[in-house]
Structures are given as structure tokens and as C-alpha cells.
Amino acid sequence: MAVKKGLFKTSVGRKNLMAITGLFIIFFLVIHLIGNLILIIPNSFFPIEFWGGVENVHDMYNAYSHFLVSFWPVTIVAWVLYAAMIIHVVDALLITIQNRKSRGEKYQVTDNSTSTWYSRNMGVLGTILGVFIVLHMAQFWLKYKVLGTEHDLYELVLATFKVWWFVLIYEIGIIAMCFHLIHGIESAHRSLGIYPKKVMSIIKYIALCFSLVMAILYAIIPIILYLK
Ligand code: HEM
């Protein structure tokens, strides 16, 4: 029991918790991307009445967003997501403090030759991403899901991406997400299991491809909507 209690207090336990919450956030990001790709489907894709009176992208996106707030299992998953995001951030801060303490005690010089710049700057990238997510949630989630002051999510998203500097903020946030994902997926695997060197290099490659595809698909949404 005592072992279980202390499990997430050790450095390894904390890293495992970061890995598990991180993988759940990635699962959300994939679903979120698929949902938001609806925004860039051309209207010519709807030659006939498609499904339940959905005739165009506007209807389809609003049907999707209505589903998000009206189907209770989605609400439960959303609460799990918020918890995962909070735990992920708190855990990252605790690990950083712990690492700084033990590094200060053990050695002064850090060898940078074996790590990438983004793995050394996960804190900065995570902070940029965090600021982006807070801004993003204040813009859409708060107005639509919490306050209910906006009812037409499609119009709200479209109006947002008509402002060039919003598009720019999104692109910066998405670039930070990309590097955060590359390093995150790699280190989540490192935390959750011991793999041979060859398998680890395949995981690194998959992490890179996956993160790039995710970032490119996310990044084109604001650009296409701005140009529309
Ligand atoms: C660029 C394309 C994106 C668009 C158009 C977009 C759009 C939206 C919209 C309309 C909402 C409110 C409705 C909902 O809950 O789904 C939302 C929520 C959210 N978005 Fe995004 N998003 C984008 C990218 C991102 C990125 C890159 C992240 C994270 C790195 C992100 C994280 C979130 C989170 C955490 C929520 C709250 C989720 C919830 O309550 O279920 N989004 N987004």
C-alpha cells in the first residue's frame, strides 16, 4: 500500500504519470484534429443532402459541435482531458524543480552534445503551448461550452481566422506543439518501457512523422480559413 501511495512521488513514478497523461492528450489531439478538419471540406463535397439535413460545411461543423456538448460520454471524456492536462503541467513543474535540485547537487556542467535543442527547451516550448491553449480555450471553449454566449461555433471560428495575427498566434502555437510532441512521444516510450536501441530509433522516427503530419494538418486549417 505504502509502495502504491508513493508510486507517483518518485521521479520514475512522476515520469510515468506524465507519459500516461501525455498519451491521453495525444488521443484527444487526433480526435480534435479530425473534428476540425471538417472546417476545410469544400462545400462542393455536399452534392445532395448528406446526413440528417446536413447540406454544407456550416451545418456539418455545427452538428459536430452540438454533439460535443449534448452527448454525455463526450462530456466525461472532456473532464478526464482537463484533469490530464492539469496533472501533466503540475507534474512537469515538479520534475523540473526536482531535476534542478539534483543537478545543482551533483554536477555543474551539462553535456548538450547528445540531446536536441527542443528536448533541452521543453519548458519554453511547453510554456508557449500552455499560453496558446489558454488563449484558444478562452476564445472558443469558454464562449461556446461554458458561458454559452456563442451558439454558432462555425461563424465564431471563421471570424477568428479572418484576423491575420490570430492566424500567426495559431501557427506559433502549433509549431510549439509539434516539437513538444516529437520529444514527448519519444520520452513517454522511454519512461514506460525499456526498448532495444534499434526499436527506440524506430519510435523516434514514428514520433517525428506523426508530429509533423499532425502539425501540418492543424496548421493548414487557420491558413485556408483566412484565405477563404
Ligand atoms: C488550428 C486548429 C484548431 C481549431 C480550429 C480548434 C477549434 C476548437 C474549438 C472550436 C474548440 C471548442 C469546442 C470543442 O471543445 O471542441 C476547441 C477546444 C479545444 N481545443 Fe482546439 N482547435 C484547434 C487547434 C488546437 C490545438 C493545436 C490544441 C492543443 C495543442 C487545441 C486544444 C483544445 C482544447 C484542449 C480544447 C478544449 C476541449 C474540450 O473542451 O473538449 N486545439 N478547439
Structural summary, described in words:
The chain has 228 residues and is mainly alpha-helical. The chain has 9 helices and no strands. Helix 2 runs parallel beside helix 9 and helix 8 runs antiparallel to helix 9. The chain is elongated. The mean pLDDT is 87. It binds protoporphyrin IX containing FE (HEM). The site of protoporphyrin IX containing FE (HEM) has 21 residues, from helix 2, helix 3, helix 6, helix 7 and helix 8.
Q: Tell me which ligands are bound.
A: protoporphyrin IX containing FE
Order of helices and strands: HHHHHHHHH
Q: Report the uncertain regions.
A: none
Overall geometric form: elongated
Distance between the termini: 59 Å
Structural class: mainly alpha
Task: Determine the fraction of residues in helical runs and give it as a percent range.
Answer: over 70%
The percentage of residues in β strands lies in under 5%
Profile the largest sheet: none
The total of beta strands comes to 0
Multimer state? single chain
Count up the helices: 9
Compute the number of structural domains. 1
